[in-house]
Sequence to fold (140 residues):
Amino acid sequence: MRLLLVSCVLVLSACGQQMTTPDAGNPLFLCDSTAPALTLSGSVQADLFDKQCKSCHNSFDATNGDFSDAARTADSVTKASKYTLKRVEPNQLGKSAMWLKLNNTKGPNGENSGGVMPPGGMLPEASRKIIKDWICSGAK
Ligand code: HEC
Fold:
């Protein structure tokens, strides 16, 4: 009986990872009109993708997107993700698989985006804000 209880708890906590579906009015999905306009070549590639993503997302295995330089990132993010959404939909946080993965959440209509990115766990808020401001300024 005890073993059964323990395994139930384990299963529940594993499923708990993505159980919530925030609604479209959730601040998580709203662009801030006063935020700075950020571009890949200006800072986002060097400050974020180079440091946090390109160790895995590079030309050795581009299946999940090659984010290893500004041109490749720009090209990769326009593509459909293997989930329901595009990797990035410019100016649309709730429709960008990348944003959902960074926040370990589903989209406003329950869109699944798989597990958190980076796989080790959510980045600090300041790093996530770089991606947010970049998506919200057209993801260029
Ligand atoms: C340790 C390796 C690793 C790191 C670091 C990493 N990723 Fe990933 N990424 C993966 C793997 C493996 C997958 C495929 C599994 C999945 O979709 O969750 C993936 C999938 C993705 C996808 C979905 C791609 C698709 O076509 O559906 C996105 C978007 C993404 N990662 C963004 C990022 C971003 C942004 C960063 C940096 C902040 C990052 N990843 C860091 C390994 C990594």
User: Anything to note?
Assistant: Residues 38-136 form one domain.
